TrEMBL record:
Its cofactor is Mn(2+). Belongs to the iron/manganese superoxide dismutase family. It catalyses: 2 superoxide + 2 H(+) = H2O2 + O2. Residues 210-313 form the Manganese/iron superoxide dismutase C-terminal domain. Residues 122-203 form the Manganese/iron superoxide dismutase N-terminal domain. Keywords: Manganese, Metal-binding, Mitochondrion, Nitration, Oxidoreductase. Coiled coil: none annotated. It is found in: Mitochondrion matrix. GO terms for molecular function: metal ion binding; superoxide dismutase activity. Destroys superoxide anion radicals which are normally produced within the cells and which are toxic to biological systems. This is Superoxide dismutase [Mn], mitochondrial. Its main location: mitochondrion.
Length: 319
């Protein structure tokens, strides 16, 4: 009698006495445990499959069950291997997944931004807080009408047109067009910003000196109000070509500063100073009345400076 090793394998049946034949091997213990199984040789009976007959090759039911389980495991492994992508396929799939995630992240960021631009309200020309002739005799009505309804209106219209084109360039991802539009955006956007401040800096009831904290800050940073006026006048008259003279607030230093900006460059975007008082020294601001004598225009404009508005701006930027 041969006992099946625990490690598996097949043991041939032991031949019995002549003519005794063979019998199905008795099982000792359960079929799943496979312990104590003995094989007794016997000639094949009617229910025992013969070798080469397509059956279990004379194996015991235990061996047949084990073999079936092994075949099923191999089939499962083979199926998993066939379903699993190759290394190159996995790399490609991973790359595509990363790209799709990046595209989704970009679209989530970009779409709201474009939506804000697309749904924006167009810029509009602000109304003057006084009549065109209210600043006479210092600035006549003809200058004010042309300056406001023509020049400032042109900045607003051009700004709206450029922003629409800039939005289209953003949607198309056309960087070249975006760069080409930026000078016009700066010029017309600056013109709109500067003039919107300028109109409120003027008043028919203006002139004189500021009061309170603004006056104290002017004395602290320039020595006196007269010295401040002289310096801002000198800087404004000295602008070569077209531009602006400004009184601004340096928030980091907590001090007032005077600066000049060329063309329509906005003060804050150019110098970082917060604009408080702007004096337009473009020729369209004075030429019809003062011709080419810019100093006379500067001397006259101090009579209509709205110090209440300048003070409000100063107090607001200190918060």
């Amino acid at each position: 009698m041969v006992t099946r090793p625990e490690t598996g394998g097949w043991a041939p049946p032991v031949p019995g006495p002549p003519g005794a034949g063979t019998s199905s091997p008795p099982l000792s213990g359960s079929l799943g445990q496979g312990r104590g199984l003995a094989l007794a040789g016997r000639t094949p009976g009617p229910c025992t499959p013969r070798r080469g007959s397509g059956g279990s090759r004379g194996r015991s039911p235990w061996r047949t069950a084990v073999s079936l389980r092994r075949r099923r495991r191999r089939a499962s492994v083979d199926a998993g291997r066939s379903a699993r992508p190759s290394v190159s396929e996995r790399g490609l799939a991973g790359a595509l997944t990363m790209l799709s995630r990046a595209a989704l992240s970009t679209s989530r960021t970009l779409v709201p931004a474009l939506g804000c631009l697309g749904s924006r309200q167009k810029h509009s020309l602000p109304d003057l807080p006084y009549d065109y002739g209210a600043l006479e005799p210092h600035i006549n009505a003809q200058i004010m009408q042309l300056h406001h309804s023509k020049h400032h209106a042109a900045y607003v219209n051009n700004l709206n047109t450029i922003e629409e084109k800039y939005l289209e360039a953003l949607e198309k991802g056309d960087i070249t067009a975006q760069i080409a539009l930026q000078p016009g955006l700066k010029f017309n956007g600056g013109g709109h910003i500067n003039h919107s401040i300028f109109w409120t800096n003027l008043s028919p009831k203006g002139g004189g000196e500021p009061k309170g904290e603004l006056l104290e800050a002017i004395k602290r940073d320039f020595g006196s109000f007269d010295k401040f006026k002289e310096k801002l006048t000198t800087v404004s008259v000295g602008v070569q070509g077209s531009g602006w003279g400004w009184l601004g607030f340096n928030k980091e230093q907590g001090r007032l500063q005077i600066a000049a900006c060329f063309n329509q460059d906005p003060l804050q975007g150019t110098t970082g100073l917060i604009p408080l008082l702007g004096i337009d020294v473009w020729e369209h601001a004075y030429y019809l009345q003062y011709k080419n004598v810019r100093p006379d225009y500067l001397k006259a404009i101090w009579n209509v400076i709205n110090w209440e508005n300048v003070t409000e701006r100063y107090m607001a930027c200190k918060k």
